[in-house]
Amino acid sequence: MSVRKLLSHLAPYECLGCGIEGALVCLRCAQELAHVPGRCYRCYRLSANSRTCPSCRSSSALYAVWTHTIYTKLAKELVWHLKFSGAQAAAQEMGRLFTQIIPDDAVFVPVPTASSRARQRGYDQAILLARALSRCYRLPHITALRRLGQQHQVGASREQRVTQMADAYRCTKPRRIAGRHVVLVDDVLTTGATLEAAAKVIKAAGAIRVSAVVFAQA
Question: In CATH, what is the architecture of 35-217?
Answer without folding.
Answer: 3-Layer(aba) Sandwich (3.40)
